[in-house]
Amino acid sequence: MKKYNKTAPEGSRDLLFEECIALSKTTEKIQKVLQKRNYNPVITPGFEFLDLFSLQGNMLHSEDMFKTIDNKGRILCARSDSTLPIARMVSSRLRGEQLPIRLYYSQPVYRIVPALSGRSNEVYQIGTELLGAEGKDADLEVLSAAIESVQSVLSGFRIEIGHSGFIKAFINRLNATPEQKQSITDACQSKNYSALTEILDGLEASEESLALRKVTRLFGGEEVFEKARKLCRGYDEKYALEYLEDLYGTLKKQNLHTNIIIDLGQVLKTDYYSGMVFSGYADGHGDAIITGGRYDRLMEAFDMPMGAAGFAVDVSAVTQIVLGGKTKSSKDNNAAPIRIALTKGRLEKDTVALFKQLDYNVDEIENKGRKLILKVSKGDRVFEIVLAKAPDVITYVENGVCDLGVVGKDTILENGTIFYELYDLGFGRCRFALASKVGEDFYAGYNIKTIATKYPVVARKFFESKNMDVKIIKIEGSVELAPLVGLADAIVDIVETGSTLKENGLEVIEEITPISARLISNIASLKLRKNEIEAFVDEIVGVLK
Ligand code: PRP
C-alpha cells in the first residue's frame, strides 16, 4: 500500500523561512494595532462540536468542514470560523464580564476547498470581536481598527462599506414569494445582474423593482449617496443610507476615507449581519482580504443578546501579496490593460464580432496564429485577450490573473461561482436537455437509470430536484454515443440546433435550462477597476440593446 509520508495533503503545505517571517511580521503589525486599541488576545480550540457551526445563518455548510468523532461518538469539527467559538466562549467563560468586551484572535481556520482549485484549506486569520457595544461609535471603532490593520501591512487596497438593511428594505417591499425574494438576494450577493433582471422582469412592475435594478449597481465615491437618496422611499432604506453617510462623514473627518468605497449593493453571504458591513480588496488577490460588520443577532443564539461587531483579515492572502511585491498603489495597477479570458471557439468568434461592432481593432486576434495572448484596442483603450478553454476561463478569473471572462452559462453552472456574473451577452444560445433514444420511455420501470454527461454537477442537481436516484457517468465529448452503444439510458447535454440528436436517433425528453454567453468579473477587479469595467459594460449594453 502506498504510504503518504513524504507529501502534504492537497490544500495543505509547509511554510518555510521567508514565508514564516512574512506571516509573523504581518501578524505582529496587525496585533500591535489591535493591542493599542485595548483588544485582548484569545485562542479558541482547534476542534468544536459541529453543532456550534450549524447555527442558523452560518454561511458555511457542514460538507465544507473537516469532521471527526470524539470518544463519546459526538461529531467534532476543525475550527472553520473564529466568531462562533468566541461567541460560545463569551457566553460561558466571560458571562458577567463588564461590557464592552474587546477580543482579538490570531489563528488558522480550516475549510474543505474544491479539489485541484489551488486554494488552501488552512487560512491564517487575525480578527476582532467587539461585544456589548452598539451604535455609530462602536461601528466607527471597528471600521477604523479594520482600516488601520490593513494599512499597517499594505498600501494599495480598497475597503468597501455598505449596510445589510439597505437592499433588504427594497426586497422586503416587493410583491414576491419568499422563494423569489431569496433568489433576488442571491443574485444581489453574487452581482448576477442578468439573473436579477430576469427575476424582476417576471414580477409585476413597481417602483421598488425599478429602484432595485439601480441601487444594486450603486458603488463608488461619496457621490453614491446623492444618487441613492433619489431612489429611497421607505423608512428602512432611508435610515440605512443616512446611517452610512454619517459614518462615512466621520471617517472623512478622521482622514480615514481615502481607501474607502461605498457599495450600496453589498449583500454578504451570512444572515448574521444586521447593520454596516464591509469587505476589503487588494491587487494580487482575487477575493476579499478582509470582511466584517455588525451582527447584533449572533449572541441571541447563546442566550446573551447584545450588540456585536468585528472583522477578520486573511493573513495568508496578505502575506502572499506582500511576498509577491504586489503592494503597488491602485494607480499603478490601473496602468496595466484589463485582461479578458475568452473561451476559444464559438464564443471567441462571437466576442470578436462584438468587439468589431464596438469599433475595436481586432487585427491581432484575427491573425493570431498559435499566439494565446493578444491585444484589442480602440484609441487609448486596450484589452489584453487571453484565449482559454471554457473551464479555464473561470479558473483564471477566480484566481485574479484575469479581470474579466467570457464564458457559457453551462460552464458556470458546472464549475461554480466565486466571481461576479455581470451581463448576459445573448450570443452562444443553446440549452441543457435530457435526451434518449427516440420512442423510449425513460421514466418507465423501477431500475436505476444510467446517465452519460460532460456535466455531472448539472446532471446531479437536475435529478436531485426530481428526487430521483441515477448513476452518472462522466464522458468527455460526443456524449450522444453513450446511449447508442448501450453505456447509458440517457444523456444530459447541450442542444443547440438539435441536429446531432436527430442524426443519431435521439430526442429531447426534457429541457433543463437555457444557456448563453456571460461576461464575468473577478471580485477584486470589479472593486479596484470599477470605472473601466463599468465603461466597457455600458459600451456592450449600448450596442446589444
Ligand atoms: C456540443 C454538444 C452536442 C452538440 C449539440 O458538442 O455536446 O454534442 O454540440 O449541437 P447541435 O444541437 O447543434 O447538434 P460539441 O460540438 O461542443 O463537441 P463535443 O460533443 O465533443 O462536446
* Shape category: globular
* Small-molecule binders: 1-O-pyrophosphono-5-O-phosphono-alpha-D-ribofuranose
CATH architecture of the largest domain: 2-Layer Sandwich
The name of the CATH topology of the largest domain is BirA Bifunctional Protein, domain 2
CATH class categorisation of the largest domain: Alpha Beta
Topology:
Blueprint lengths: L17 H19 L3 E3 L4 E3 H4 L13 E3 L5 E4 L4 H10 L8 E10 L11 E10 L3 H17 L5 E7 H10 L4 H12 L3 H9 L5 H9 L3 E2 L2 H7 L5 H19 L6 E4 L12 E7 L7 E5 L13 E7 H9 L6 H4 L4 E6 L2 H12 L5 H4 L6 E6 L2 E8 L1 H9 L5 E5 H7 L4 E5 L5 E8 L11 E5 L2 H10 L4 E5 L6 H4 L5 E6 L3 H5 L2 E10 L1 E5 L1 H6 L1 H15 L1
Parallel strand pairs: 1-5, 7-9, 13-15, 13-16, 19-20, 19-21
Antiparallel strand pairs: 2-4, 3-4, 5-6, 6-12, 7-10, 8-9, 10-11, 11-12, 14-15, 16-23, 17-23, 18-21, 18-22
The structure holds 1-O-pyrophosphono-5-O-phosphono-alpha-D-ribofuranose (PRP).
Would you kindly provide a written description of the structure presented here, covering whatever features stand out?
The chain has 21 helices and 23 strands. It is globular, with a radius of gyration of 25 Å. The termini are far apart. β10 and β11 form a beta hairpin. The chain is an alpha+beta fold. The strands form four sheets. It has a nine-stranded mixed β-sheet with strand order 1-5-6-12-11-10-7-9-8. It has a six-stranded mixed β-sheet with strand order 14-15-13-16-23-17. Strands 20-19-21-18-22 form a five-stranded mixed β-sheet. The protein has three domains: 18-323, BirA Bifunctional Protein, domain 2 (2-Layer Sandwich); 334-429 and 517-544, 3-Layer(aba) Sandwich (D-Maltodextrin-Binding Protein, domain 2); 430-515, D-Maltodextrin-Binding Protein, domain 2. Residues 454, 477-480, 493-500 line the site of 1-O-pyrophosphono-5-O-phosphono-alpha-D-ribofuranose (PRP).
